[in-house]
Amino acid sequence: MRVAVTGKGGAGKSVIAGTMARLVARRGTPVLALDSDLFPGLSVSLGSGPDPVEPPLLGASEQDETGQCGWREGVDATIAAQRFATAAPDGVRLLQRGKVGRAGFAAIIGASKAFWEVAHGLVDAPAFRDWALIRDLPGGQRQTGEDWAPYADTYLVVVQPGAQSALTAQRVARLARLARLQSRQATVAFIANRVRGEDDVRRVEELFGEPVFASLPADEGVAAAERVGAAPIDHAPDSPAVAAIQRLIGAISPSAPRSEPHN
User: Fold this and answer.
1) 262 falls within a domain
2) How many domains in the chain?
């Protein structure tokens, strides 16, 4: 399972990616969760604690005399993913690009470059061939269009019942399809999130003119978890949204048919 979760900011991408990672790991599959957002999100949804002040991936890179960032001696994409991913609950490993703090983006340039190289190195890395790779992309179109998740065979485009969310979903889906045409075909599946019934699902489909692959309900348990900064799978493990994400995992497993109903 190699998944990139994308869509408009605030649509619920991190909750879906983090909960998926935990649930897949509980099945016995090694999971590498990848977080390229410059702002907090995935670590909270994973329940892995606060983001480190200094991104671990800074230890994988160094600058040469021209100021260009490259690998430290003895490090490559596979080693960086193995060495600088941090532990998360249920055995998940979390690899982060890094977060923007008071020092701004300049402080994490080396980590950002290393993250990009890791993402592309994972496409054919033998050491991660049997791992699930689950990526939480930042809101918006940029990283999807620039192919920051080249290993993904499924893009989950998260959309809420609203015109702005649907417009972003349309654009992100188009970019995902264009990016993948250059190498291998990837599936783009629309996930209607925080819906309150079939009317909301139909509204989403009308807004962007494509069928919904799966829907996740508006869930007070998830909202309560977000308010206190907890992972939904820990704070509300029996909530309808967690159950829906479990079904989603079954629907996008490599052996599952792509005609799985959304409800």
Assistant:
1) no
2) 1
**Residue 263 domain flag:** no
> CA-CA distance, 130 to 254, in Å (whole number)?
12
For residue 247, the enclosing domain spans: 2-252
Give the DSSP H/E element, type plus range, for residue 124. Answer: none
Please give the average per-residue pLDDT across 95-109, as a whole number: 80
Quick check: 97 and 148 in contact, CB under 8 A? no
Alpha carbon of 59 to those of 41, 55, 83, 94, 244: distances in Å?
Answer: 22, 8, 9, 15, 38
CATH code for position 135: 3.40.50.300
Helix (H, G, I), strand (E, B) or coil at 159: strand
Nearest CA among 225, 214, 192 for reference residue 259: 214
Whether 76 shows a pLDDT value over 50: the answer reads yes
Contact 171, 141 (CB under 8 A): yes
Q: Please state, in angstroms and rounded to a whole number, the distance separating the CA atoms of residues 139 and 162.
A: 15
